[in-house]
Amino acid sequence: MRKGKSTITLANVTKRFGDFEAVSDVTLAVEPGQVVGFVGPNGAGKTTTISMMMGFLKPSKGTVTVLGTNIEPQTSHSVHGSIGYVAGDMVLPGALSGRQFLAFSAARNGRIDERFNSLVDKLQPVLHKPLKQLSRGNKQKIALIAALQHAPTVLILDEPTSGLDPLMQDVFLDTVKDESKRGTTVFMSSHILSEVSSVCDRIVFMRAGKFILDKPVRELTSQLGKHIVIKGHDVGKLAKFLPDSAKLLYKNANEIRLSIPSANIKTFMRWIVTKEFDDILIEDRDLDDVFHELYGGKTK
Ligand SMILES: Nc1ncnc2c1ncn2[C@@H]1O[C@H](COP(=O)(O)OP(=O)(O)O)[C@@H](O)[C@H]1O
Ligand SMILES: [Mg+2]
Q1: Domain shared by 82 and 197, yes or no
Q2: Could you tell me if the CB of 17 is within 6 A of ligand 1?
Q3: Which of the four, 119, 147, 162, 288, has the lowest number of CB atoms within 10 Å?
């Protein structure tokens, strides 16, 4: 039974392991059809949060719902049949072949033959070999087909592409894009922002157990502005006189780097032409730049 309208909700959810608080009082509502990128450095609490959504872990406080059902840990909910789940570190039964494992998943969650066939066409999985003989990328294809063959309403992915080669990452992300076109709600974690920003329409940043930012990707990109690097003898001293809208990111004697909102670029140009410098670079900032500002450069 759907109670609320939101597909996934977390209400004041906290998870403690002994004295350690891995997730601290987080609240979230994912709306039907949204594709949410759940981003944060290793250890932020992403897997713990997702495990509570799936009912693998019990919150110390707060409630979790998926498709209107209260998720009670270790309980088999009918709602699980409407969820597709893939994790990057998923262990699949190595003795089974891809085909056997997919038949086993289909027996639990169902299979729509047309979808199964189109997924096999698209992903070209190795179906006949035991899973333990497959490369990581090939195993991940099987895990993805198992998660999608029953046409789930919700797709929950925990760093699904970690350790995949770039080609395989693209195949995986393309499949997620196709799912979202179908109207599937997607919640996908990653520690790589650029990966999720190409697929998602909303980003939730998590750091040290808290959601520190929750914004539409559109809004984040519109705020990106420009990144400017000025080089030349003694340009470091210009840092004190920057226009108000400029934010100093780095300086040494012969180089300064700053960011500036796109709307203020003209003011900046008028200011800089009156100064002495040898070289200037002006480029669009991308979401990874914002990410590094937020995380204080601690992740790389
Ligand atoms: N079962 C557990 N017992 C104790 N600490 C845990 C357990 N699971 C996770 N943690 C800790 O909680 C924090 C968040 O972990 P996790 O949710 O796996 O982060 P992420 O997925 O963002 O990398 C980490 O500091 C991790 O060591
Ligand atoms: Mg994790």
Answers
A1: yes
A2: yes
A3: 288
